[in-house]
Queue: 2 jobs
Job 1
Amino acid sequence: MIQEIARAKLNLALHVRHRRSDGYHALETLFAFVRDGDLLTLSDAETDRFAITGPFAATLQAESDNLVTRARDRFRLTFGDDRPCAILLDKRLPVASGIGGGSADAAAALRALATRAGVRHDDPDLLACANVLGSDVPACLLSRTAIGRGRGEDLVPVDGLGGVPALLVNPGVGVSTAAVFERWDGVDRGSIGSGDLLEVARSGRNDLEPPARSLAPAIDGVLAVLARQPRTHMVRMSGSGATCFALFEDAPACAAAAEAIRSAEPGWWCLETALI
Ligand code: C5P
């Protein structure tokens, strides 16, 4: 049995530079990952099986085409490993919420299958599988802080944010990534900075915030509540939303904010965690 955590991804900054001729958008983004995520378990089996459990299982089960089974099929095609397997996904993170979700699950499946087959996690063919599955899957395969360019797949790992307390908050609305990108206003507001990573993050933006907020006004409320919390380094939306996050100066401040938000907004999903 092999287990992999599909860690939640944050875009500490996400600068959209231009619309490409292939329909994707050229990005500059600072990816970071947190301790917590979905849990994927891979076991040998007589026939292929895929099951989803956990608090967000129901939303995903409705989808016929899951990124995890696509990752499994893509791995087989690439590496010729036809042994059947059982994959169990404990879905702990909200779906369609800007924190990786399906991309992280697909990447976790690739890592687990690679481990079983004796393939290195940095094998270029594994990275190629990730690339085909989605723009965020290569970053999730790496699951460490990195600057992403291109569609997000052109990655340069960076160090320096491990242990920073983070609070992730989702108001319970899903947003379509494609719809948010479609509403981007086309204005290039410039590249992300360089140097101290926290400063790069703080001085950056998420250019998808305005279009996401117009599609899901509940995001306004989440950002406002996070902005009122004491001792934050920064508050921002992640990816195409609707999950927003705050980074804190210390863990007690993060815990206090989590408690305040949970009691004020019991319907919101709230994860108290830390960057890795
Ligand atoms: O790559 P992925 O399938 O995850 O992307 C989902 C959608 O998000 C794409 O179909 C595209 O509309 C949009 N997207 C984009 N530019 C990116 C990444 C995603 O326009 N860099």
Job 2
Amino acid sequence: GTVFVLNGPNLNLLGTREPEIYGSDTLADIERALHEQAGTLGLDISFHQTNHEGQLVDWLHEASRQGAKAVLLNAAAYTHTSIALLDAIKAIEVPVIEVHLSDPTKREEFRHVSYVGMGAADCVQGLGARSYSVALEKAAAL
Ligand code: DQA
């Protein structure tokens, strides 16, 4: 099966973006590690990043059309604002696992609400880049 890994705004800047919060791994590092891990799990990865909300909606639909096994979604700041993403998650049958490098519940109050979380099957956060690999293990076990 294929696991879509969707990344939202500003995650293209990982590595240099607030490394004290997000770590020093780049998104390319994370993608490489996930591809390796996916190989050992017998999964394929379809990995994407965008700074645009509607593109994330389109990719959720695409994951559904392709019959993906799961979606790992780090919607970044749209996590805390996007009813459109919540509706898209609810509109598809593919299970969505919410992913964050940091733990938003331990940060500013405006990060405490997660619209993504209201539709997601599971959530892995606060483990840095390892959040993605733990989420992929969860996806493999679905
Ligand atoms: C994030 C947490 C969000 O609150 C923030 O807006 C991000 C990254 C994370 O991975 O820790 O851009 O999703």
